[in-house]
Amino acid sequence: MIFDFDAMPHGNRYKLLVSCVVPRPIAWVVTRDAAGVLNAAPYSFFNVFGEDPAVVAISVGPRPEGSAKDTLSNIQATGEFTLSMVPFDLAERMVITAADFSPEVDELAEAGLTTIASTKIGTPRIAESPVAMECTLWKTIPVGVHTMVMGEVKSMHVADEAVMNAERAYIDTPKLDLVGRMHGRGWYSTTRDRVEIPRITPAEWAARKKAAE
Q1: Taking a C-beta distance cutoff of 8 angstroms, is the pair 124, 118 a contact?
Q2: What gap in Å lies between CA 15 and CA 184, rounded to an integer?
């Protein structure tokens, strides 16, 4: 089946993309406005795009009526944000923060979450998350009605029990028990089912082909 993106409404393009680009990691973003009021929201249009500089990016769409979401407005106002990953045991609380609350509502309080001060920026991180990144705004890029927000990671916090070797930056990723976004409005995946498929060199592949002849 071929879907011609030039000939379909954007809503159908969205459904196709989020149904097939899975699982997607979730960025749990905390921002603050110029007055210091905090906002928290999850974004699954998210990934890492480099390590030198260390850049992560989220794509922020508008509110249904077209106005900018608090996340984007706050980042543009302060030039910073924190980004936490979502473990399975916090998934339901993450969903609470995704609700379209009015700006004066504290999503963190509604979800029973607490914050802890960052070390390099003024915006705090979610204390309950096993992984958090302190980011400064690197660049914004308009993508239609969305805005890609690229942040440079200035500091990362990882739960002690998941750090295997701090000097060599070895992390016990399975211990983080993170979730990813799947299709539909309420589907998520865990990282508990894994398969190991080692990478090979061209020489190893040639040897395999020769052995199979």
Answers
A1: yes
A2: 8
Buried b (16+ CB within 10 A) or exposed e, 44-82: bbbeeeeeeebbbbbbbbeeeeeeebbbbbbbeebebbb
pLDDT tens digits for range 106-129: 899 999 999 999 999 999 999 999
CA distance 207 to 180: 37
Contact, 65 vs 53, CB < 8 A?
no
CA distance 86 to 42: 9
Distance CA 79, CA 70 (A): 13
Classify 104 as helix, strand or coil: coil
- If we measure between CA atoms, which residue out of 140, 120, 126 comes closest to residue 83? 126
Closest Cα partner for 131 from 107, 153, 150?
A: 153
Cα pseudo-dihedral 132, 110, 37, 131, rounded to 10: 0
- Per residue in 51-72, pLDDT (tens digit) is 999 999 999 998 878 788 899 9
What are the residues facing 157 on neighbouring strands? 132
For the chain, the farthest-separated pair of C-alpha atoms sits apart, in whole angstroms, at: 70
Please count the other Cβ atoms lying within 10 Å of the Cβ belonging to residue 110. Answer: 14
CA distances (Å), 138 to each of 11, 54, 76, 99, 149, in order?
Answer: 29, 10, 11, 27, 8
